[in-house]
Amino acid sequence: MFKFIHIADVHLDTHFYSRDPELRNKLRDSLREAFNRVIDTCIDEKVQGLLIAGDLFDNDKLSFQTEVFLINAFTRLKENNIKVYYATGNHDPGDKNYRANLINWPDNVHLFNDDSVQELEVKHNHQIVAKIVSVGHKSKKEARNLIKDLPAKNTEIPVVGLAHAMVTTASGVDGHDSYLPCTAEDLISKHYNYWALGHIHQAQQVANESIYYCGNLQGRNPKETGEKGGYIVTIDDYGNVEVKFRRFSNIQWNTLEISEMESIKNYQELKDYIIVKIEAFLNSKEFDANQLILRLQLEGRCFLKKSMEIDEDIKQLEEDIKLHLNLLSLEIKANNLLPLVNSRECLEGNHVLSRTVDLILNIKDNQELIDKLLEIKLCNKKLDGKNARLKYILELVEGLEEEALNRMVGEEK
Ligand SMILES: [Mn+2]
Questions:
Q1: For the domain 2-247, what is the CATH code?
Q2: What is the distance in A from the centroid of ligand 1 to the CA of 90?
Q3: How remote is the CA of residue 368 from the centroid of ligand 1, in Å?
Q4: CB 165 within 8 A of CB 180
């Protein structure tokens, strides 16, 4: 049996420059705490190895303090006979002048730090229980598909692949650079029992196979939402694999959209309305409020739009709500808000705007016009079938009346 923990994309010492200093320190400390939780769990769960699929830290940002922290953490594993298998990524490349290669790691740490394919036997009680096959990033911009060079499985012993790689069809690939790109088929064709991947920060199973991104250890921005951690993986002697997600990070990021604020007239009402919405959100997800970094995206029409263009007013609102709900951090985005318009007046009066909106609203009901449109060709699309073309036309006019109102009506006077 081979039991191990799979983590990746820890990015120790991330600066979080856009956050205030207090939060920045908290984020840095909580990331180290999360990493310590990984080490504790390795010991408690009596795993044989810790597999790190790259981007453990950012080469240029790693502090001396964190370097010592890492060495101490790995030494604790060594004292418990646990090996570390660490494949470098694009942020912690392993060429000779980079930190990953220069640090004097304890001898239980095995580094896959360049483009040479390495196969390693994992031994337990003098028996070979598994093989690890891996390749690392030597430079910051490894653009080759090195997975192609890895050998296919040719043994009864369980084989685990370890790499910081970009599976081009995985979800959440946007925002990740295409370093060490490969396809799911490249990975599947090796017939390994498990693939421990890093690079994409969103935990996921790839192509319904035994191929996993564990995601990053702690979210780094409002888009990296939800629980963050790693996988505890057990492969038995017959090659059966059990994969369990374990949350290691206490801190969570999340984004909440709030709209329908047309009837709100003053600050108190606005504040209370938002608090109720956040409370419902907290209850639905069983969040620990004081570990939550929340971004609120305000949408729709709001009488108080003008105030919310003023930094000081937004800060006041953030501060009051944060204190009331005991949130770790709250950020309010009001840039999408629209001014409140008296839509009845705009739509019912006899003027150019009301007539224009009438025209737009009537397109859908004007069968003669729709029939004519269905007969002529589409500008830059090819759609077969009347239904598909009808759907396209209706999508084109959908919401145009709102667009006209926004464009033609200013602030309510
Ligand atoms: Mn990466």
A1: 3.60.21.10
A2: 5
A3: 55
A4: yes
Which residues of the chain does CATH 3.60.21.10 include? Answer: 2-247
Q: Name 119's bridge partners.
A: 133
What does the radius of gyration of the chain's CA atoms come to, in whole angstroms? 27
CA of 110 to the centre of ligand 1 (A): 19
Token output for 391: 């759907």
CA–centroid distance, residue 30 to ligand 1 (Å): 21
CA angle 259, 264, 267 (to 5 degrees): 105
Tokens standing for residue 361: 């609203």
Q: What angle is formed at CA 276 by the lines to CA 272 and CA 280, rounded to 5 degrees?
A: 170
Residues in the chain: 413
Instruction: Give the separation between CA 128 and CA 2, rounded to whole angstroms.
Output: 9
* 311 CA to centre of ligand 1 in angstroms: 34
What is the distance between the terminal CA atoms of the chain, rounded to a whole angstrom? 74
Cα of 165 vs centre of ligand 1, distance in Å, is 8
Q: How far is the CA of 306 from the centre of ligand 1 (A)?
A: 41
Per-residue pLDDT of the chain (413 residues; tens, 9 = 90+): 999 999 999 999 988 888 888 999 999 999 999 999 999 999 999 999 999 999 999 999 999 999 999 999 999 999 999 999 999 999 999 999 999 999 999 999 999 999 999 999 999 989 999 999 999 999 999 999 999 999 999 999 999 999 999 999 888 888 788 999 999 999 999 999 999 999 999 999 999 999 999 999 999 999 999 999 999 999 998 999 999 999 999 999 999 999 999 899 999 999 999 999 999 999 988 778 999 999 999 999 888 888 888 999 999 999 999 999 999 999 999 998 888 877 667 777 788 888 888 888 888 888 899 999 888 888 877 888 888 888 888 888 887 877 777 777 654 44
| Distance, CA of 138 to CA of 330 (rounded, Å) | 39
